């Protein structure tokens, strides 16, 4: 049985992230003899992607102790108050992992069937990037990585409780507010990028974005938006399960949630780095 067009439009009014949002448009239902999506399996698949992220972190540490160990630290730069020293090879792997993460994220968004593979690669690359940040960029302050993890877990639990208790409901007004906030952040990023490319406005844009308090506020707003995205992700997963979508959609639902959780973690880690880096000055 297919849902009506009006229902479909209501479900897709706001899309939480590029991976999970398209599930709200799926009209396919599990056949009588076909297994439908379940909460337990979505949770297990989400845990799988997060464990792959941990594997990516461990892979970096192994490479740091072996492959990168004898490489000269020829590159030195300051990152938000932290003096960073790394090798060309190490930085090359970091850039490569970042590019691969972007590519697999885009592929996963438009080719849902590839998510078991692209989602795994993305999660592994994210773990590699996180580990490089924690154990090389902020060397000596590795505890910030653990602190960011604790805060992320707390946010996920709180948002899950708020959603389960119907304290926050995914209504049309909620989606409109989220759309406005998200659109504003995108607009600020685009205008900032364009302004930085123009020689006349570059010093002005650089001075604003380089201001600690401006950067701090923007990061906090990003964390709030990402945290609220969890609510829309939970609602989408409810839609997948309660409308008995085929089990094959579990991968997309799981990766969408893992994607948001990792986004929150990275933004919180960035916030902590900014605060500690500023205090170091």
Q: Would you summarize the structure shown here?
A:
With 281 residues, this protein is mainly alpha-helical.
Structural summary, described in words:
By secondary structure, this protein is mainly α. It has one domain (36-280). It has helices at residues 5-11, 39-65, 88-110, 115-137, 143-164, 172-197, 202-209, 212-242, 250-280, and strands at 75-79, 82-86. A hairpin with a 2-residue loop joins β1 (75-79) and β2. α5 crosses α9 and α6 crosses α8. The longest helix is centred in the C-terminal third of the chain and has 31 residues, at 212-242. The chain is globular and about 55 Å long. The termini are far apart. Residues 1-16 have low confidence and may be disordered.
The count of domains is 1
| General shape | globular
The main pleated sheet reads as: 2 strands, antiparallel
Report how far the terminal alpha carbons are from each other. 62 Å
Helix amount: over 70%
* SSE series: HHEEHHHHHHH
Strand content: under 5%
Radius of gyration, taken over Cα atoms and rounded to an integer in Å: 20 Å
| Mean pLDDT figure | 84
Name the strands of the widest sheet in spatial order: 1-2
Structural class: mainly alpha
Attribute tags:
281 residues; mainly alpha; 9 helices; 70% helix; disordered N terminus
Task: Indicate the topology.
Blueprint: H1 5-11, H2 39-65, E1 75-79, E2 82-86, H3 88-110, H4 115-137, H5 143-164, H6 172-197, H7 202-209, H8 212-242, H9 250-280
Antiparallel strand pairs: 1-2
